[in-house]
Every structure is written in C-alpha cells, then in structure tokens.
Amino acid sequence: MRFVLSLQTSGERMIDLSKLGLEGLDLSFLPPSILGRLSFSPAAPVKPPFPPGRHQLGLSPERDTILVVPEGMDAGRPVRLLVMFHGANGSAEKVLPFFEQHAHQHKFLLLVPQSTFATWDLTIAGNGPDLERLDQALAEITARYEIDRNHFCFCGFSDGASYSLSIGVSNGDWLSHVIALSGGFMNAYKPIGKPLIFIAHSPEDEQLPIDASGRKHVRQLKDAGYEVEYFEFSGRHVIHPHVVEKAVDFFLNRSKSSGH
C-alpha cells in the first residue's frame, strides 16, 4: 500500500502528492506532529485515578475532551482505553450515547476528544491543534492510569473514522486496535506498527461511497500486511448501535492472529 501525505485546499479538495510526482519526496525534516505522530510517552502513573463518572479534562474552555470512567474498575491494574472521534459537525454529546453504556458494562476508559473546528484538523488543513490536544489528553490519562497495551484503541465515525485510521496507522506502535465506522479517507505519511483494524461501511451510504472508501481501504490495508476485519451493513450514513456492538466486541475480544 502506498500511504501519502496529502495537502488540502480551502475548498476541501484533497491533493495527493503522488499525483504531482512527489511521492518520493523526503519529508522527514518536518516536525513529527505534522506527519501525525503523537509525542506523549506513557510512564508510571503519578496522579490519582479519577472517580467514576464523566470528567472534562480542562484542555480547552470550549469543546473540552471528555473522559468516562466506569464504576468498579480496578485502577491498580492496566486499564483498557478506547478513544472515540466524532464525525463532522459532531460533538462528544452526539457519540457518547452509543459508547458510554459499553464502557460501563465492560469496564474500559472512554476518551472522547472534540475537534477544535467543525471537523478534525487533518480534514481541513493538516495536523495541528487537534493532534496537540489529543497528545495532552493521552498524557493526562497515562499520568493517572497504566494502559493495557493490548486494548488501546482509536475509533471514529465518518470524518472521525478517517482521523482514526490516519492517526492510528501513524501511531500503530502504541495502539492495539483501530476502528473506522463509515470513514472517507486515510492519509498517513509514515505508517508505524501493525494495529488490528476494523472497518464497517454500508453500500447504501449516501455521503461516502463504499467502493471509494471502505472497500478500498480494506484492500490497501490487507495488501500492506494488516489484519483487517470488515463488516458491511445495511443503512444510511449514521452511527448504528448494532455496528457499534460489533466494533466494541472487536476491541475487547480480537487479538492478533487469534482468528476470532
């Protein structure tokens, strides 16, 4: 698979550098964050864990990052973490109803960042403030919890799925799982690691045609050696509870080369 760094114009048209004959350009001199690399470094927790419930992390006066901590979670052991990225014009409040119950039932941390603008910075003009705040959020979480590296997942819907895929494969040395629900694109300059990947898409998707997104991404990722679970479902371009259930099961129960 050829991953490329893509630029984007104000008209939201993605420009693939490979089409300009620049696919061999060495961009390693750029700051890692521009290329989608996170800089947080997990260490032994030095702060107390949060009590159960919803918490705003205080990273921004508006559209702050939300953390859901379930009741009865043993903070003395490594904890499972799922990071959920909302879709365009979305918010934490729009996705929490689909995932919060699963976090409480299965005892995993649910981190829900919110884009600075109407959608994620990568979709608008490239990695910037959203990646920076994600870094800060993960640093705060890992200062309070030891993360189970076998259950550390990026998940997203629509533009959030594109963000999850793009940032996920760029940081696959940290992540165990990446989930994309009805995503549109995947941009990564330098993929690292091989997280397990779950992609769900509908042939009836009226916003993001399946052949140019879900099916295409599955082919590319499998050709590049990723383990991919693919689920086609029937329905419009919205979050579907039964698809979320399947994705959460993938996060909790699928391990590399397990076959299930």
Verbal overview:
Helix content is 26%, strand content 20%. It is α/β, with parallel strands linked by helices and 260 residues long. It has one domain (50-253): Rossmann fold. An eight-stranded mixed beta sheet has the order 3-4-6-5-7-8-9-10, with helices on both faces. A two-stranded antiparallel sheet has the order 1-2. The protein is globular and about 45 Å long. It starts with 5 loop residues before the first strand and ends in a 7-residue tail after the last helix.
Keywords:
10 strands, Rossmann fold, disordered N terminus, two-stranded antiparallel ribbon, 260 residues, alpha/beta, eight-stranded mixed beta sheet
Q: Tally the beta strands.
A: 10
CATH superfamily: Alpha/Beta hydrolase fold, catalytic domain
Summing up helix and strand content along with how strands pair, one would put the structural category as alpha/beta
Q: Report the oligomer.
A: single chain
Mean pLDDT score, rounded?
A: 88
Rg of Cα set: 17 Å
Number of helices: 6
